[in-house]
C-alpha cells in the first residue's frame, strides 16, 4: 500500500507540468489568435481527434500490428544473439564491431533501400524495425550476463555445475533487470521504426495518416497522430514494466537497499 502511494506521489509532478503546459498553450493560441493550420489549440486537437476516431482506429491497429510483430522479432533476435556472443568469446570479438557499425547507419537512409530491395509489403517494415530493436536488447543482455557474481559462479563450478546449469540457474536470472532495460528501450524504438516505415510506403497506418494530414495542412491531425504515437509508446513501455515487476519482484528495490544502509 505504501509502495503504491509512493508511485502515485511520484507521478504528480510530471502530470502537473503537462497540465500547466497545455494551459499555457491554450491561452497563447487564444490571446495571439494563432491560426489552426499553424498551431492548433489543445481543445481543437481533442475535438479533431474525436471527429477522426473511426478512421484513426483503423490506422492505429495497422501500426500497432507491425510494431508488436517487429518488436517481438527484433527482441528475439537480440536475445539469441546476446546468448551466442556471451557463450562464444571468439565470435563476440569478431561480430561485436559489426554490430556497432550497424547502428551508425541512419534509418532514414536505410529505409528506402529496403523498399527497393524487398518492395512495399510487410517484409521491409519488419527488417527495419528489427534492425532498430535488436541492438539495445543485445547490448543490455550481454552487459547483464557479464555482471554475474564471479564468486557465485566459482561456487557453482566447485559443486559440479556444468556450463548449461550455470547459465540457466545463475547468469540468466542475474541478467533479467538488464534484459528488461533493453526491452523497454527497444519498445519505444519499435514504434518509431513502424512510423518511419509507413512514411516510405504503406496502405494504412499512423505514419501514412500523418503524411496525408501534413500535405493537406491539417496540423491538428498531425498533433493528434503524434499524441497517439506517444500514448502507444507509453502503453507498451508500461506493459513491459508490469511484466518486469511480476517476474523479478524478488529483487530488493532501491528503497529497501537504502533503508538497509
Description:
This protein is mainly α and 261 residues long. It folds into 2 domains: 1-32; 53-252, MetI-like fold (Orthogonal Bundle). The protein contains 11 helices and no strands. The chain is elongated, with a radius of gyration of 23 Å. The two termini are 23 Å apart. Mean pLDDT is 87; it is low at 253-261.
Distance between the termini: 23 Å
Using the coordinates shown, work out and report the CATH topology of the largest domain: MetI-like fold
Number of strand elements:
0
DSSP summary: helix tally? 11
Gyration radius from CA atoms, angstroms: 23 Å
Overall pLDDT confidence: 87
Hey, roughly how much beta strand do the residues contain?
Answer: under 5%
Number of domains: 2
Gross morphology is elongated
**CATH domain class of the largest domain:** Mainly Alpha
User: What structural class do you assign from the helix and strand content?
Assistant: mainly alpha
Task: List the keywords.
261 residues; mainly alpha; MetI-like fold; 2 domains; 84% helix; elongated; disordered C terminus
Short description:
The protein contains eleven helices and no strands.
SSE topology:
Layout: H1 2-31, H2 42-51, H3 53-87, H4 89-102, H5 107-118, H6 122-146, H7 150-158, H8 163-200, H9 206-215, H10 219-247, H11 254-260
Helix pairs in contact: 2-10, 3-4, 3-6, 3-8, 3-9, 5-6, 5-8, 6-8, 7-8, 8-9, 8-10, 9-10
Amino acid at each position: 500500500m505504501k509502495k503504491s502511494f509512493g508511485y502515485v506521489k511520484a507521478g504528480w509532478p510530471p502530470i502537473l507540468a503537462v497540465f500547466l503546459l497545455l494551459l499555457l498553450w491554450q491561452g497563447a493560441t487564444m490571446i495571439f489568435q494563432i491560426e489552426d493550420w499553424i498551431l492548433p489549440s489543445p481543445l481543437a486537437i481533442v475535438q479533431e481527434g474525436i471527429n477522426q476516431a473511426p478512421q484513426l482506429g483503423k490506422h492505429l491497429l495497422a501500426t500497432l500490428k507491425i510494431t508488436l510483430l517487429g518488436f517481438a522479432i527484433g527482441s528475439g533476435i537480440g536475445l539469441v544473439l546476446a546468448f551466442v556472443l556471451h557463450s562464444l568469446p571468439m565470435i563476440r570479438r569478431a561480430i561485436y564491431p559489426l554490430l556497432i557499425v550497424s547502428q551508425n547507419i541512419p534509418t532514414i537512409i536505410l529505409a528506402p533501400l529496403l523498399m527497393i530491395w524487398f518492395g512495399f509489403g510487410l517484409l521491409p517494415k519488419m527488417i527495419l524495425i528489427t534492425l532498430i530493436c535488436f541492438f539495445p536488447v543485445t547490448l543490455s543482455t550481454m552487459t547483464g550476463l557479464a555482471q554475474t557474481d564471479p564468486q557465485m559462479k566459482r561456487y557453482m563450478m566447485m559443486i559440479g555445475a556444468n556450463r548449461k546449469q550455470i547459465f540457466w540457474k545463475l547468469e540468466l536470472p542475474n541478467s533479467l533487470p538488464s534484459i528488461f532495460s533493453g526491452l523497454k528501450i527497444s519498445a519505444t524504438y519499435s514504434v518509431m521504426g513502424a512510423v518511419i516505415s509507413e512514411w516510405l510506403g504503406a496502405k494504412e497506418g499512423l505514419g501514412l495518416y500523418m503524411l496525408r494530414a501534413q500535405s493537406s495542412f491539417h496540423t491538428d491531425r498531425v498533433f493528434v497522430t503524434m499524441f497517439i504515437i506517444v500514448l502507444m509508446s507509453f502503453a507498451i513501455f508500461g506493459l513491459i514494466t508490469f511484466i518486469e515487476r511480476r517476474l523479478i519482484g524478488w529483487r530488493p528495490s532501491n528503497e529497501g537497499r537504502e533503508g538497509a544502509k
